[in-house]
User: Fold this.
Amino acid sequence: MIFGIDFDNTIVNYDSVFRDVLKKENKIINKSLISKKNIKNYFVKNNNITEWRQLQSKVYSSYIHKANVNKEILKLMKFLDNKKIKFYIVSHKTLYPYTGKKINLHKLSKEWLRNNIFNKKNNFQKKYKYYFENSKESKIKKIKSLKITHFVDDLDEILNKLPNKIVKIKFNNLLKFKKIKNCFFTI
Assistant:
């Protein structure tokens, strides 16, 4: 058994960061926009894709250090580590933001992992590898090449592209884990 875990919106929870940046820029639209998903849907619905991409680029670069750990995923990672089950972090992340400053997102993400996950406080028993792929296609290829048997992601788009032999685990930080098909352990 080898697990793979997505990074953005799976390990990392940006909800409060998106709200804070909108508030800081005096763009809070209404109080119902409490999650990244709500905020993105609002911008898409109002044909503001450019503004959405600008906001997302800022959050994923200049403000990533303010993002939180999804505690349920951290529990899963600790469980896997304690049971000596191998896992990798495999994410689709461009090297630089779509807009704004040219900041190395891979470097920032690796720093975030070292500061928030793979630190003394969490005391992981071994070193884990993480991969940041520039496209969704290369992410799928990496998952296959690592022979991952179980993959956790927040995006149906990614899970649906994985081979059927991989157990697909949908994560939604509001609902926690949805049904874990063919999984034989509990967290």
In short: The helical segments are 15-24, 36-45, 49-60, 71-82, 105-116, 136-145, 156-161. Residues 178-187 have pLDDT under 50 and may be disordered. The chain is about 40% helix and 15% strand.
